[in-house]
Design brief:
Largest interface: A-B, 69 and 66 residues
CATH class of the largest domain in chain A: Alpha Beta
CATH superfamily of the largest domain in chain A: Sulfite Reductase Hemoprotein, domain 1
Structural class of chain A: alpha+beta
Number of helices of chain B: 6
Largest sheet of chain B: 8 strands, mixed
Shape of chain A: globular
Strand order of the largest sheet of chain B: 2-1-8-7-6-5-4-3
Oligomer: heterodimer
Helix content of chain A: 25-40%
Number of helices of chain A: 18
Number of strands of chain B: 11
Distance between the termini of chain A: 57 Å
Shape of chain B: globular
Distance between the termini of chain B: 55 Å
Strand content of chain B: 15-25%
Number of strands of chain A: 21
Order of helices and strands of chain B: HEEEEHEEHEHEHEEEH
Structural class of chain B: alpha/beta
CATH architecture of the largest domain in chain A: 2-Layer Sandwich
Strand content of chain A: 15-25%
Radius of gyration of chain A: 23 Å
Largest sheet of chain A: 6 strands, mixed
CATH topology of the largest domain in chain A: Sulfite Reductase Hemoprotein, domain 1
């Protein structure tokens, strides 16, 4: 894991002091709310429906056990004993008082954390594959590059007042687990024919009211030019992105209105100029130095097959479901990557209590090299667990409501906080997620349905990623009533696609039945259990689902 | 972990801030903070004839020797600022003037036509129509870093203290400050900077030195005068 040096500590301390001063000036009335807003947002402080919300950065989703313990402590001391993990791999506290925020930031700084640039019209927390550093299929660990981007984008003097927020994602495998193509800039680490590392560069993805899948503007960018190229993209956007309409201000709109070919030409022209200044070339030894922080842990050698693991599977159906759905292949034989589901049946997606955070921290220390990850699917991950340890790990998780074996299944639902918390929302999300989770909750039914992602947003801003859900639900306000529109066929992986609206929306008490109808239609029409929901929708189109929902035309 | 029911839960008391927003609430002075270092002050501010001039430059308020040329006005005798478009239209006729020329570049306006004539200009004024509009940050950097402009770059418009340290790193070295609170804070020696930097910009108008092992980490060099204080 990355560790702060003296400079990083000085930097974060000075930032906390700067924000403490800004909070004081706000409280004393020297700063208007209008002037304070972008400052607090860049420090992670949102004004929600009921209170301020503090969004804490978990850079590229990587946490240590010690950091997780601090989050638990903050949840107890300053919040209501729980926190909410988000689709940006961050953590939100929903009830802090503004006056406590500088103290919380100081506590975070003591464990090398911050809330920098988790909101506002700046470069946001950089996300990555939550299996990074452990996945069997990665080219190399993408996190050193995410860390370099995190550093370079921190309080960037030129790019802190952009037209709109700006999100970067770095992945390193063909299989995209991080929704990379829905980001403003997506980077895929790869090797060229000569075996050199570099990036495929994607620009202009985003969700919100105008969902777009990013366009590839570069097939191979040499590793050393990472910052120069990103700076070129940022400058083209900063100067030319629309500022007349907040809803048309993301880079996806600039790309769309300018055309991919022309925007690519502008980026390449700017990149050529940036290279001439020669300020941003990444030195090889510096990449190596950062990479060393992310060196793979030294894991004891194990046989690929674990007797204890196989015996536990033979013993218990619940454990088998957990092993099949929540344990993913690790680079090292005899190890697995464990997804700790924050989606208990009937629960609130992404919520974790302080006690649960501490349990995960303990387990990380005991079984996973003290490392934890947060996934954009709002689950936690223990990346380096020996198969031999799985039964014991599972038993402890089960004691604390963390062993639901539903990763990737229909109840592994993404939902935004919705109208229960959010000032922007038109409809609730959490209640719908809970209802669907209960309806599909039986292990047999989930197994029968197989891989299926439901994603729920309480408004058009799409924080719940509904556009890229296999089934997406969008809450809208229709004459004072919450109504949910259903989209089908969205996808956030390497086959990224925006779902298609299937028809008129459903009221709160109808939407659960409607989703069941969609799922039953799939089960009836699929070619077999090997054809998952997404594949079936792609083959069948909307028609049979439309007919099942609204009757034959 | 039960969420509040949206429509029925009474809105929680907001932070004190909401109360302080009410008219009549007395503003309290912000306590001084270590990191809000004083901007290096080469000369005592009292030596200036007009300490209350509109321009924040060289770490103090100074009088403005420049005149902005109004739309229907002839270009004056002294140092004159012209909007970019007018400068380009009239530049041939301005050749015999002895006084310095300045150009006003609007946020997002392209520099390409100005660049060939940049040597004739000693001041570029960049507009910030709103403090949250960062286009002129890019323009300032391009002027310094790419086009080697060594004259004065002035920020005008919605210039507030919290953006000024960033502007200075992008190449701005004078600030047309209208906001009374910002003026008061500057006069009190405030400069709300995080004096540690992670971008090796070639445009900064302050002395920065390497910090730590990273090739791009910088911190602000302390002015010798200040170190002696």
């Amino acid at each position: 894991m990355y560790r702060y040096d003296e400079f990083d500590h000085d930097f974060v301390r000075a930032r906390v002091a700067q924000f403490a001063d800004q909070v004081e000036r706000r409280l004393s009335g020297e700063l208007t709310e209008d002037q304070f807003k972008p400052l607090r947002l860049m420090n992670g402080v949102y004004l929600q429906l009921h209170a301020y919300m503090l969004r804490i950065a978990v850079p590229y989703g990587t946490l240590s056990a010690k950091q997780m313990r601090m989050l638990a402590q903050i949840a107890r001391k300053y919040d209501r004993g729980y926190g909410h993990f988000t689709t940006r791999q961050n953590l939100q506290f929903n009830w802090p008082a503004l006056k406590d925020v500088p103290a919380i930031l100081a506590d975070l700084a003591s464990v090398e954390m911050h809330a920098l640039q988790t909101s506002g019209n700046c470069i946001r927390n950089v996300t990555s594959d939550h299996f990074a550093g452990a996945a069997a299929d990665e080219v190399a660990d993408p996190r050193p590059y995410a860390e370099i981007l995190r550093q370079w984008s921190s309080i960037h003097p030129e790019f802190s007042f952009l037209p709109r927020k700006f999100k970067l994602c770095v992945i390193a495998a063909e299989h995209d687990r991080a929704a990379m193509q829905t980001h403003d800039i997506g980077l895929q680490l790869k090797r060229n024919a000569e075996g050199e590392l570099g990036f495929a560069v994607f620009v202009g993805g985003g969700q919100g009211r105008t969902p777009m899948i990013a366009h590839k503007v570069r097939d191979f960018l040499p590793e050393e030019d990472l910052l120069a190229y990103v700076e070129a993209i940022m400058r083209v956007y900063n100067l030319h992105g629309r500022r007349d309409n907040k809803f048309k201000a993301r880079i996806k709109i600039l790309v769309h209105e300018t055309g991919v070919e022309e925007i690519t030409r502008q980026i390449e022209a700017e990149f050529a100029e940036v290279l001439k200044a020669d300020l941003l070339r990444l030195p090889e030894d510096e990449i190596d130095r950062i990479r060393a922080y992310f060196a793979a842990p030294e894991l004891a050698e194990k046989p690929a097959r674990s007797g204890a693991f196989e015996a536990a599977k033979a013993d218990s159906r619940e454990f088998t479901a957990f092993a099949e759905n929540n344990v993913s292949p690790h680079k090292a034989p005899g190890y697995g990557i464990v997804t700790v589901s924050l989606k208990p049946i009937g629960g609130i997606p992404g919520d974790a209590s302080a006690e649960q955070m501490e349990v995960v921290a303990d387990l990380a220390e005991r079984y996973s090299q003290s490392e934890i990850r947060v996934s954009h699917e709002q689950n936690l991950v223990l990346p380096h667990v020996a198969l031999d340890d799985m039964p014991a790990l599972y038993a402890t998780l089960a004691e604390h409501g963390l062993a639901t074996g539903n990763a990737g299944l229909v109840t592994d639902i993404i939902a935004c906080p919705g109208l229960d918390y959010c000032a922007l929302a038109n409809a609730r999300s959490i209640n719908i997620a809970q209802d669907l989770s209960n309806r599909f909750g039986s292990p047999e039914r989930q197994e029968e349905i197989g891989e299926l992602s439901i994603k729920i947003s309480g408004c058009i801003n799409a924080c719940g990623h509904h556009h890229v859900g296999h089934i997406g639900l969008l809450g809208v306000d229709k004459r004072g009533e919450e109504v949910y529109q259903i989209t089908l066929g969205g996808s956030a992986d390497e086959t990224a696609a925006v779902g298609t609206l299937v028809g008129p929306g459903f009221k709160t008490d109808e939407v659960g039945d409607a989703v069941e109808t969609v799922v039953d239609t799939y089960l009836k029409l699929r070619e077999g259990p090997d054809e998952n929901f997404l594949a079936a929708v792609r083959r069948l189109g909307q028609k049979p689902f439309k007919e099942a929902l609204y009757g034959a035309a | 972990m039960t969420p509040p029911v949206a429509a029925t839960t009474a809105v929680q008391a907001f932070d004190d801030i909401e109360i302080l927003d009410r008219p009549g609430a007395a503003p309290q002075p912000a306590r001084s903070r270590d990191h809000l270092r004083r901007v290096p002050d080469p000369e005592p501010a009292t030596s200036r004839p007009d300490p209350e001039g509109p321009l924040w430059r060289n770490g103090r308020f100074e009088t403005d020797e420049w005149t902005m040329t109004a739309e229907d006005e002839a270009v004056g005798e002294g140092p004159a600022i012209l909007p970019l478009e007018r400068f380009l239209a009239e530049r041939d006729g301005l050749g015999h003037r002895n006084a310095p020329l300045g150009v006003l570049v609007a946020a997002g306006e392209s520099l390409s036509e100005l660049i060939p004539h940049l040597t004739r200009v000693t001041l570029v004024v960049l507009s910030f129509p709103k403090f949250s509009d960062g286009r002129s940050m890019s323009t300032a950097r391009l002027l310094r870093e790419r086009h080697g402009f060594g004259g004065e770059i002035r920020a005008t418009g919605d210039v507030l203290i919290d953006q000024m340290p960033l502007m200075r790193r992008c190449g701005v070295d004078s600030f047309d400050v209208q906001n009374p609170v910002t003026r008061k804070q500057l006069a009190a020696g405030k400069w709300p900077d995080v004096p540690f930097y992670l971008q090796p910009v070639g445009s900064s108008q302050q002395d920065e030195v390497a910090a730590g092992k990273r090739p791009w980490a910088r911190r602000r060099a302390e002015a010798p005068r200040q170190a002696a204080e």
